[in-house]
Amino acid sequence: MPDTSMSFRLSARQEEFRQTAEKFARDELRAVAVECESTGAPVSAATRRRMGELGFLGVNIPEEYGGLGVGKVDALIVLEELAKISPASAFPVFESNCGPTQTILYAAPEWLKKKVLPQVCSGDYMVSVAMSEPDTGTAMTDLTTRAERKGDKLVINGTKRWCSGAGYSEGYVLYCRLEDKPGGAGVGAVFFEKDTPGVSFGRPERFMGVHGFHNAEIYLDNVEIPVENIIVPAGGVSDLMQTFNMERLGNATCSLGIAASALEVALEYTQERTQFGKPLVDFQAVQLRLAEMKVDVDATRLLIHRAAVEAGDGLPSMMDTSVAKCFANEAVRRVVANGMQVMGACGYSSDYPMEQKVRDSWVWGIGGGHIDMQKTNIASDLVGRRFSQR
Ligand SMILES: Cc1cc2nc3c(=O)[nH]c(=O)nc-3n(C[C@H](O)[C@H](O)[C@H](O)COP(=O)(O)OP(=O)(O)OC[C@H]3O[C@@H](n4cnc5c(N)ncnc54)[C@H](O)[C@@H]3O)c2cc1C
Q1: CA dihedral for 164, 165, 166, 169, sign (positive or negative)
Q2: 215 CB under 6 A from ligand 1?
Q3: Which of 41, 66, 147, 286 has the lowest CB atom count within 10 Å?
Q4: How many angstroms separate the alpha carbon of residue 113 from the centre of ligand 1?
């Protein structure tokens, strides 16, 4: 009797869902991706609503909040298929199934979930996260944006940097200092909306890749919000970081989508292009590169799905997430480098798809906790204690 207690296959439902996402990506998202890449603007409201109609924006959001209420693996399968076209065109799905929307789902008060989640699922609303500041990147708990309590209001002042979707998203999960205590003890998160008086946005940043993420600074000048908008109170950084593990799996899945599609592109090209009278794929050195790409893609997917399955109805563990993200972020850089090499000048030309994949691949190992920080997390989990970075 075969042992069926452990399976590496998608279920029939997951496979059907994957095919729906693949078809949408192939038929409808390509033109959107070209637009994002050329203008730097995020996907339009119409595309978001289309994603909503297909259920892609609430795959792992419970039905009571307008989602499909199916598992994390399903959510990541959809994201992978869309990220194969480009991570920028998949951005709303990233933000909803993995990003700050998940912080709202797992940590926000009920009224906020009811207000935001159904609108996210329908595509009428997007949520971004504002953590980074000009002087605060990896050392997030040094942030200085302050939300000061005045009666039943919070008054926010500060500057946020690099926020993806800044000025486009309707809602923002803001990491800020809620109490006058040092480091993480004073840090929590609140929610504000784009059109709140005192909120303004900087010019779009120019990045090497992921055009269409629309990153910009956010200026918060005496912004007043009700105290009910607190998502996580001061001292709740570890709760925030737990929800952020889902964002990290999304980050890893974008790496996977780029890598998997780079392999598809390289496979097709090396079978069509001939040199010395035979297809490129007939050269053993090319075969080795393709095989290395396949090993990286499969290993990445398995690590991501392991983290998602092990999480069950809860949030993924730091160890599983860090292992998956760390591997995915390093693997995608290897995969696109191999892909570009086997395509020669066409790999380097912006008239062919590999060039954008190379540019889009690098950032995942910088954002969402860089690769070396993930390695520190892994070592920390191995020995059972946190290492002070100070
Ligand atoms: C495309 C893009 C999208 C982004 N989107 C968002 C967003 O939506 N919201 C948001 O808040 N931020 C966003 N960011 C910012 C991102 O989260 C930060 O870039 C990230 O946290 C790293 O911070 P930093 O760039 O300031 O690097 P730094 O913290 O200055 O670190 C630079 C390098 O130093 C090394 N280093 C630093 N600290 C350590 C350490 N303790 N141990 C070992 N090595 C270390 C690492 O090599 C690291 O890459 C985005 C960035 C990019 C590029």
Answers
A1: negative
A2: yes
A3: 41
A4: 29
